[in-house]
Amino acid sequence: MNETKENTVSENEAPSNFIRDMIKDDLETGKFGGKVITRFPPEPNGYLHIGHAKAICIDFGMAEEFGGVCHLRFDDTNPSKEDDEYVQSIQNDIKWLGFDWGDKIYYASDYFDQMYEYAEQLIKMGKAYVCELSAEECRQTRGTLTEPGKNSPYRDRSVEENLDLFRRMKNGEFEDGSMVLRAKIDMASPNMNMRDPVMYRIQHKSHHHTGDKWCIYPMYDWAHGLEDSIEGVTNSLCTLEFEDHRPLYDWFLDQLGVFHPQQTEFARLNINNIVLSKRKLIQLVKENYVNGWDDPRMPTISGLRRRGYTPASIRNFVATVGVSKVNSTVDYALLEHCLREDLNKNALRRMVVINPVKLVIDNYPEDQVEYFNAENNPEDANAGTRTIPFSRELYIEQEDFMENPPKGYFRLTPGNEVRLKHAYYVKCTGCDKDENGNVICVHCTYDPESKGGWSNDGRKVKGTMHWVSAKHAVDAEVRLYDRLFTVANPDDAEEGKTFLDYLNPESLTVCHGAKAEPSCADMEPYTNLQFLRMGYFNVDPDSKPGKPVFNKSVGLKDSFKITK
Ligand code: ATP
Ligand code: MG
């Protein structure tokens, strides 16, 4: 976690980091003519997750900070896994996070013609060749980190033959896997990426954007630098695993003599207790281990949103983690801490009883109803107030009554007095039980002099409880969540197991019988709330008129300490 310490920030100050410093230098030296153009290049083969949020904040954030622009570019060079549903969701998620690409939205597939021209150019320069080794033979002749690879027997084909074969590849004359176009670099290079990498492969597949126009598709390393160059991107910011690919990125651009963006790498975001690989996230969704991409247990942006995360909490999280060149794993509790900080300031306070039991105030007039005013948020004077009805029969949490309590229990227990928040002091007189000994109703008396929850004679009570008037209560469903995985690193499965073996069977608990105060009846989906004493919650889009559904976002208590 040393990343966190070094880079802890408040919202207003931008601490230095190596990317910011580099861009400042470039602006001073005029390297890119004073321009800053970045890009966020998602492959539309899944929903965005919290790791992407880091890249988004850096790519869009740097452009914003230096008066530049950030392009949204769909890196759709692989037809097999891409889908328009993902294209839409990615745009929604970036907008929701608060970033804007203006009219700079691009598809890598729009450059297929241009890329093809560039490939012919390399062939004509004698820098690329059509290779008919099988994938397996390619692998076998690639060498290892300590041994050089072997030249392909097809490496010295003439330019004419290469051009002819490549054109026929494009025209669909050959089967998938029968040949590839490779760059002719150096099979003995210490950098494996430079050992005649594949530029094009044959795939007879429809593409979500170009349809059946192409049956050859470019590989990432060949395509990415060209995409950046064509768009005039100045700073191509990416994650550390591309560091070893930079020489190849540079080689292609240098050979072609085209505009040459600067690639710079930063550490990926890793968080414990979750998985961030798209392949695994897709599996969780497709095999119904969760209820869709926006399941509140998912680390996707849409899952976090549905859980109650706010754009500000996610952006603050990314800022707190900071930008570094060293990979590390961040504690999930830091993410929750950032949410809690935001919600404490902004969430409306409400009273909701999640597991109810009746509380009858035996000395309260049967038909009387009183209305108490309560502030919506003590942290925010502008949040206003609401009225809460109070009557003879209330609901309280089952756990707030105990007939034979342990020492130090300050809630309702025979003979004990507590405060009902915003209302009165009540003293417990006993309870009714069913034939199995379960408590079905708790009895108490109230002190009419303690109106508003304060006593005139200065006597103190140790417990304050939330409650809901029974006849005014709104029936609600409350969904409680626990970690999706039971171990800190589900990616690191023991032999014979997969990450799925570490799924937490108790990650979702649905409470069907919750009782909410009336002001909760028809709230906008995604509204953030604090249920008194119970935690932070939000309104789920599954809510129906008069029948709200709430998700627990995070508990009230912080388990994370930031060292500043
Ligand atoms: P996969 O894990 O399936 O290979 P990906 O996570 O790289 O895919 P892309 O759609 O290619 O998915 O990602 C778009 C951008 O987001 C890339 O620039 C990538 O570096 C960045 N990114 C992805 N995951 C993370 C992460 N965990 N932390 C920071 N940036 C990330
Ligand atoms: Mg990728």
Give your account of this protein's structure.
With 564 residues, the chain is α/β, with parallel strands linked by helices. The protein contains 13 helices and 27 strands. The chain has a 7-stranded mixed sheet with strand order 12-25-26-27-23-24-13, covered by helices on one side. A 7-stranded mixed sheet has the order 21-18-19-20-14-17-22, with no helix packed on it. A 4-stranded antiparallel sheet has the order 4-5-6-7. The model is unreliable at 1-12 (pLDDT under 50). The structure holds adenosine-5'-triphosphate (ATP) and magnesium ion. Adenosine-5'-triphosphate is lined by residues 41-43, 51-52, 54-55, 238-239, 268-269, 276-278.
Short précis:
With 564 residues, the protein is of the alpha/beta class. The protein has 13 helices and 27 strands.
The major beta sheet can be summarized as: 7 strands, mixed
- Name the poorly predicted regions: 1-12
CATH class placement of the largest domain: Alpha Beta
What's the tally of helices? 13
Number of domain units: 3
Instruction: Let me know the average pLDDT.
Output: 94
Which strand order spans the largest sheet, edge to edge or round the barrel? Answer: 12-25-26-27-23-24-13
**Multimer state:** single chain
What ligand species are in this complex? adenosine-5'-triphosphate, magnesium ion
Do you know the CATH architecture of the largest domain? 3-Layer(aba) Sandwich
In CATH, the topology of the largest domain is named: Rossmann fold
Principal-axis shape equals elongated
Layout of helices and strands, plus pairs?
Layout: H1 2-7, H2 18-29, E1 37-40, H3 50-65, E2 69-74, H4 84-97, E3 105-107, H5 112-124, E4 128-131, H6 135-140, H7 159-170, E5 180-183, E6 198-202, E7 216-218, H8 220-231, E8 235-239, H9 246-256, E9 262-266, E10 269-271, H10 278-286, H11 301-307, H12 311-321, E11 328-330, H13 332-346, E12 348-350, E13 352-353, E14 356-361, E15 370-375, E16 385-390, E17 393-397, E18 417-420, E19 425-433, E20 439-447, E21 464-465, E22 468-469, E23 474-481, E24 508-516, E25 528-531, E26 535-539, E27 549-554
Parallel strand pairs: 1-2, 2-3, 8-9, 10-11, 12-25, 14-20, 18-21, 23-27
Antiparallel strand pairs: 4-5, 5-6, 6-7, 13-24, 14-17, 15-16, 17-22, 18-19, 19-20, 23-24, 25-26, 26-27
Helix pairs in contact: 3-12, 8-9, 12-13
The protein binds adenosine-5'-triphosphate and magnesium ion.
